[in-house]
User: What shape does this take?
Amino acid sequence: MRLSESEIKALVLVAGSKQALHPRDLSQALNLHPATLSRLVTGLVDKGMLERDGKYIAMARTTAAEAFKKLYFAHRASPFPLLLADRRVDLLALIEDQQKMVEMLEKESGIPRKTIYRYLKDFIRLGAVKRTKQGRSYLYSLNEIIWPEIKGFAAALQEYQALRLIPREALLIKSYRDNVLFKSIRPQDATFTSFSAYKEYGIELSLRDNYYTLPKRELSIQEVFIHSLDSAWEAFQKLFCVLFYLKNRDKLEAIDHPMVEDIKAVLQGERISGYPTLEDIKDRADLYDNKL
Assistant: This one.
């Protein structure tokens, strides 16, 4: 999700205004031509941040706009463009999951490493991100003590954009950088993935829901597996993931995902809460000609 510096400044003005703002007032405050401002406002309406209220411009009635207001009122004197402009929100959304190295952030975001370092330098100076040394490298994470509102805003903004892509009756599972994962009881004009795509690899499952991804495209076995890991909310679904992993281990064991390490540990006999036991796996493995 990209927010320009002008968009951030517009949001700050609207959120902090003591009265409803007319486009003329916003145009003058931002020093923008009326036509340019109109396009800017339209873009923010599409992103769920602003709405046109008759002749005036107001914050939208969305979770993303509410999250921005919480962020603004908690830190209203802060230089928000240094925190949110350009691809910074994308980077913050990735950091919120767990501590990460720059190499992982570059891989997951597609943002050039030089730009990531520039963003991180601003984040650290503002106190929004903290870094911890691990060996010769640094791990970066959100500073939720000083900026607890960042996580909510980044997540709400991404979720709003993702929900616009999927059918109304579908349930969003996860939003990635350039695609979304969701499930639906009804058939959808989308690409089967996760457990719904297992049959293409020799594992037939009886499913209540269908799992999809958009945009439509041809998926690799690695993408299908990652989607199933991210879909596995229940123990029986994690069992499906283990069976799929066993059947295609040579293509999947190098995947960098927290659950892969748990799967490997379970297959060594370790008991992990929420995962099937090795005995459970053995009982089902023979059905799919899987070897432990």
Residues 70 and 149 are 7 Å apart (CA to CA). The chain has three domains: 5-74, 80-150, 166-288. The chain has a mean pLDDT of 93.
